[in-house]
Amino acid sequence: MAIADYLSLGHGALAAGVGGELFVRGSVGLAHWARLSPGIIGATVAAFATSSPELSVATTAALQGKPQLALGDALGSNVVNVALILALTVVVSGLRLPAESTRRDLPVALAGPILTGLLLLDGTLSRFDGLVLLGVFALWMGRVLLEVRQQRSVAEEILGEQRGWLAVLLCAAGLVLLLVAGRLVVAGARSIALSFGIDAFLIGATLVAIGTSMPELATSVVSKLRGHDEVGLGTILGSNIFNSLWVVGVAATIAPIRVPGPEVELVLGFGIGALLVLILPNGSGFLPRWRGWLLLALYGGYVMAILRGRMPHG
């Protein structure tokens, strides 16, 4: 373990912050320019961008024969996204739940980890299982694209860069910085975690998951500060869908994934539990601050459970 690992973490966090700011400006402006709701942009373009570090980790890990790291990162990132990042946003001032995201994205975000758990009942995510996940992802994306066609007439006044070419440029610049951030944080976190003797799946589910979720944190915070709850929530839910279906599907298609059952059950269980906190009966369409505290308590329990069940590396 060297000082360079900690510098990599710091530089990655900085790149995530700047990239998140640029991407929110660009994506909200892109929504205005394209006459789409910011929630759609958050669940697709922004979610893809913020999940790109997980995808980068997944493909690299799978090609290097470490698909367990990819699975741990994707599933662990889902816990971090809801139980830590979204929780912090809710604790600050509550969060409005747009009907669009609640109806379209929340059920799929919940179905993703449940489907992954069912496919893992035999102890392995095979290439065929990966294709099943990718197929479900394609169905969800098809539904989103249908809504895009229906929303072309929507043109609400929102903050953001309203010149189309500059909005695209900001999105591209933000995406590059988010990709760089993911690589820097993952590289530093992986080296530090390995030095403490944690196995590949748990490395992915803890430090690497936090590292690759930095873009979601940056995007959610900036969205909240700018009054665009729908962008932040759309990004979180969309990112979870990308992680569970697209990222895990790609990794499993490249290389079958075998992970000890108790480890997967732990991470999947907390991920599903965090989403259930969001869908508890709530007629107001608003998440009060106490739900944020409940999610943070859930994340604290997740970290404690991971630490208690930590397995030596190798």
TrEMBL record:
Among Pfam families, the record links this protein to: Na_Ca_ex
Localization: Membrane
* Principal location: membrane
Entry membrane topology = Multi-pass membrane protein
Q: So which domain of life are we looking at? A: Bacteria
Ranges that cross the membrane = 79-99, 105-121, 166-186, 193-211, 231-254, 266-284, 290-307
Q: Does the record bear Cytoplasm in its keywords?
A: no
Query: What is the designated name of this protein?
Result: Calcium/sodium antiporter
- Which source organism does the UniProt entry give? Cyanobium gracile UHCC 0281
